[in-house]
Amino acid sequence: MAEKLTLGMISMVLICIWGCSPKMQVQEQSAKVVDVPQPIVDTMVQVVEEAPITMEEAELVARIQKTPCFGQCPVYKLSFFDNRTAVLKATRFVEKLEGVYTAKIDPSFYKRLEQELEKCQYFNLSPTYPYKGEMIKDIPNTVTTIDWDGKSHKITNNHDAPALLLDFEKFLASYLKELDWEKRN
Fold it and tell me: Is pLDDT above 60 for 11?
């Protein structure tokens, strides 16, 4: 009797959890409607948004990301790939751009990137700033990611970063205005 009661309670809990979880209806080609749990849909959207734009295999070389603040701070992710393609995901307050854009990068970018990396000693910098300090939660972070010459490094700058890192961030962000962006559908 106790086993039947326990099994019944477990079944009820599972039914409540499954029945209360948010769902999205997805239409298949056969016009049949299928319920897909919302977390799976969110994951699929994220994978599609972060996929390289070109059909050929492209590897990330550099990325700069600006996170939100409580005001009108630009929010974007600007990625540079090894196939001379840049991808901008502009979320808000970005040079009158919103959505996903692509642009072609001049080959000289990669030489300049290498020079800027050496100048600021990027791979020797701390992964977070302030180094061993308190993060301020209501200001935007600048996150840079570099995959270069077999080395990878990611830095989250909240505040109190060295001037050379700030110059490097400005170098990457300058391509927001320098490139000819083409809106993706």
Answer: no
